[in-house]
Write a structure and sequence with these properties.
With about 190 residues, the protein is α/β, with parallel strands linked by helices. It has a single domain, classed as 3-Layer(aba) Sandwich (Rossmann fold). The chain is about 30% helix and about 25% strand. The chain contains six helices and eight strands; from the N terminus they run βαβαβαββββαβαα. α1 crosses α4 and α2 packs across α3. The protein is elongated. About 25% of the residues are buried.
Length: about 190
C-alpha cells in the first residue's frame, strides 16, 4: 500500500496493513500534491518495486481531479482500465469491467497495467483487533520525494474559489395562460 502526503497518512497505511496489505510505503511531504507530482512519485515507486498491476482510487477527495491514474499509465507506457467495478486477473492479462451509461463495458489489458477503482469494485473488509495489532509490526517505509528523484513543486496555482451566484426565487402563476403570457412578454423566450 502506498500513500503520499503528511506524516498523518501513516494512520491510513496502518489501516491498509490491518486489512491485509503486507507492507506500506509513505512518500512523506508537506507540499501541496497535484496529480502530476503524485503520478511521477508513483512511477518512481513502480520502477523500484516492479508490480504487475497498480490499482488506484478513481479520484482524490480533496480536488476530485481524476487524473493521477491516467497520468501514471501514460508515464509508464502501460495500458489502463478506469472506473473498474470488477477486476479479474488472468494469465498475463487483466479483465476490467466498468459501468457506462448504456450498461457495462469490459476491456482486457495486457499486464503490467494500471487500474483505477470505482467504489463498487469491492466491499472493504473490516480490520479485526488481532490484525490491527499485527499491522503495528508490519513494515512501513517512509521516503521523501527527493529520495525518489521527483520534484513535487506545484505547477498550478489556485487563484480563487467562489460559490456560484444565488438564483432568483421563482414565481407561481395562476394558470397556463398566465405562464404563456410571462414567457412571451417578460422572459421573451417564445
Amino acid at each position: 500500500a502506498v500513500s503520499l502526503g503528511v506524516a498523518q497518512c501513516q494512520e491510513t497505511l496502518r489501516t491498509a496493513l490491518a486489512m491485509g496489505a503486507d507492507r506500506a510505503i509513505l512518500v512523506q511531504t508537506d507540499a501541496e500534491l497535484q496529480p502530476l507530482a503524485v503520478a511521477k512519485a508513483l512511477k518512481a515507486l513502480v520502477e523500484k518495486e516492479q508490480p504487475r498491476l497498480v490499482i488506484l482510487g478513481k479520484q482524490a477527495i480533496d480536488d476530485d481531479c481524476n487524473q493521477t491514474g491516467q497520468m501514471l499509465a501514460a508515464l509508464l507506457g502501460w495500458p489502463q482500465g478506469t472506473f473498474a467495478s470488477k477486476v479479474a486477473v488472468g494469465d498475463g492479462a487483466v479483465t476490467v469491467t466498468r459501468e457506462v451509461d448504456g450498461g457495462l463495458e469490459t476491456v482486457e489489458l495486457a499486464l503490467p497495467a494500471v487500474v483505477s477503482a470505482d467504489l463498487r469494485l469491492n466491499e472493504p473488509r473490516y480490520a479485526s483487533l488481532p490484525n490491527i495489532m499485527k499491522a503495528k509490526k508490519k513494515p512501513l517505509e517512509t521516503v521523501s520525494p527527493a529520495d525518489l528523484g521527483v520534484d513535487v513543486a506545484p505547477r498550478l496555482e489556485t487563484l480563487k474559489v467562489a460559490e456560484p451566484a444565488k438564483r432568483q426565487a421563482g414565481i407561481k402563476v395562476a394558470d397556463v395562460a398566465s405562464l404563456v403570457d410571462k414567457l412571451k412578454n417578460e422572459a421573451r423566450v417564445i
